[in-house]
Amino acid sequence: MIGTAVILMLAGAAAGAEPAAGGWRQVWVDEFDGPSIDRSKWDFDVDCWGGGNNERQCYTDRTQNAAIKDGRLVITARKERLTGPAYPLSQRDDAEKAKAAATRDFTSARLVTRGKAAWTYGKIEVRAKLPQGQGTWPAIWMLPDTNHYGAWAASGEIDILEAVNLGVRCDTCEGGIENRILGTLHFGGPAPDNVHKGEEIAMPAPIDGFHTYGIVWSEREIVWTVDGRRYASQQAGDWRTAGSSAPAAPFNQPFHLILNLAIGGGLAEGRGVKGVDASGYPKMMEIDWVRVWQCGEDAASRSRCDGVEGRKN
Description:
Radius of gyration: 19 Å
Helix content: under 10%
Oligomer: single chain
CATH architecture: Sandwich
């Protein structure tokens, strides 16, 4: 996940996404304007597994941890002990794992479109406000709907946005406080033969308001944007999978979207002042909207979409 940091200066950060141009057409959206989370669009992961990163939360489907408030999805991490399944649902076909339980000191939520919506290529944007504090780890990311090329990470992972410990003292950060965001791809072979490649950028500190985080994903390239400005890209050939020789693999299959707020774990606890600061809870990640566009099927539309990859900073 960690790359060479660059500074991204945003003059008047956009309040919302710009309308998609050219051949783009909106194919999926959630503005969170209903009374409750739309279960036709979102499911919940419910477990105390720790995400494979030794995270400290149990994920629940309770309204205390995820709810619609004032036209926004609010994911709330709370400092409270809870016991739940020790393994994610995908691993509970093993009888022993299905019975195993774990207890964690925090609760939060992880919403997924798995089994409800997935896309191959497109423009995906999420307008979100991220929490502050040592040990917080909000993420907007994607996983394949099926392990077409094999177990993680042979079938890939696309991290649209990750941030850890925002607002915390950081001797190597611009302005002396943590203000970096990360965009990363995971690929290669099944763990432990997985690899990752990405870039992190410094935003004007503090990152305490809403910003629009996105990717533009095509067969030949994935571009990361913030508030409509391009800050990183990777091309087919930068990634690979042990399961195929196709240049675009594994990022040529349907991927679903994930929104979550983790507490602790390797990346968060290894940075900043280390560990998890248990003060100041609850912590909230707010999502104003999620929008997905894809190209029209005709060649002219695809040609126009190819030219819309985010404004360079």
